[in-house]
Design goal:
There is one protein chain. With 503 residues, the chain is α+β, with helices and mostly antiparallel strands. The chain has one domain (1-503): ATPase, nucleotide binding domain (Nucleotidyltransferase, domain 5), CATH 3.30.420.40. The strands form seven sheets. A seven-stranded mixed beta sheet has the order 18-19-17-16-22-23-24. The longest helix is centred in the last third of the chain and has 27 residues, at 369-395. It is globular, with a radius of gyration of 22 Å. The N and C termini lie far apart (63 Å).
Amino acid sequence: MSRDLVIGVDCSTTACKAVVWDMSGKAIAIGRHGYGLDHVRSGWVEQNAADWWVATSAAIADAVKQVGGNRIAALAITHQRETFVCLDHAGNAIRPAITWMDIRATAEVEAFGTEEVHRITGKPPNPTPAWYKLLWLRKHEPETIARTAHVVDVAGYLLQRLTGNWVTSWACADPLGLVDLQRFDYDDTLLEMAGLSRDQVSRLVPPGGIAGQLSSGIARELGLPAGLPVVAGAGDGQSAGLGCNVTRPGRAYLNIGTGTVSGVYADTYAHGTAYRTMGGPVPGTYIFETFIGGGTQNIVWFIEHLSGIDVTAGSSGETPEQILEAMAARIPEGSEKLLCLPYWTGAMTPYWDGHARGAFVGLSGLHGKAHMYRAILESLALEERLLVGGVESAMGRSIDEIILLGGGARSPLWCQIIANVLGRSVKLAREQESTALGAGIHAAAAVGLHADIRAAADAMTGIEKVFESEPEAHQRYANIFEAYRSIYPSLKGTFRLMAENMP
């Protein structure tokens, strides 16, 4: 039997998915196992790193059982970015992993977030990159840094468990904020400031590079052949772009997941505050990325805390999201003069303000949960308009094509709102597991099942549906946008006062 399939493993914020792909990009089998987050205190979000391996190994084993391990040619890893864990010499976690959602290092951002750091890493100063949290650990938990033998991103952790090698790709490690993006190598000064050396970080390979071979013991556990090539992919944002074939200029993806990430392909390095620069999934390229620290997590929060709807199902078997979407669809654009600011975990592009928080503006006795639900959907679309305009202005060219993916893209109402707010058609990716598909594309190219990464992306991706902008709705949203864009500047000082004076 020929080895004609690959596995794309997506170890995300709350679950690991292992998807078996054929060479046309069709999902043949899937395994999924979840894990939790620990909200230690306001703004502190940690995770048990061992859960990554438990979920990953179980997801891979479940997927492999459905097709048989002898058909698998390679597997590749993509993962939640910026999240990291400090390990001892035995590879055990010294403390819980600190996630990308964690914003405890605001003081370190203010003290060390210089223009030079921005130039080197492509990341405007903000609490998301691990480097600032490592500086926080050096100050507040020096014993952790003293005991640390390895600092790894999620891919580096999993690749070591799979192959025994301390290795990751530069497109996986780059979001940590330790990599010089013009050289695709660690910056020694940034390592030194965090109290680390090169011996304590994973060796870097290009995205789509083979990290090693599957060890015999792990192979038996997973039902796969020993010696199977294991590929280092890219962080989940870049991998999602690859799974949408964002491999050429003028094309962007919009991934509505836990957070909302949009990325535009670029051939050459640049940096600016309107975006953050990431190592692209095609070696030597870049993604200019915008990030909203809100997305489906805002919806989940609303359902669990404010909707009053049973989170298991409605009386007719509908999900809470379906019930609320039907209600919100009857509300006009602008939610009858109710606006929402979606900064549940701070503001990223273009403001880079860790003190910012979410807000509803314009509440009155008229408004109910359907208005608030629609306002959340609209807020993320309005924020995306702000971000797209900023990137286009910085790049000096238009974004010709926007491809939607992620859990939020399963909402027809949300997709139509986005098209109307942006005033352009948006395309729904054929494969909603585009992040795992990006890893599958890397795996297929790495072992020669397709000629290279771009050829694999051309063969394995496609479009399912197009949402056209409605001119009258777009004009109404253009007026709403003028009010929306004034909210954060008006509240910026309030957010800082709250952070400084309120426990």
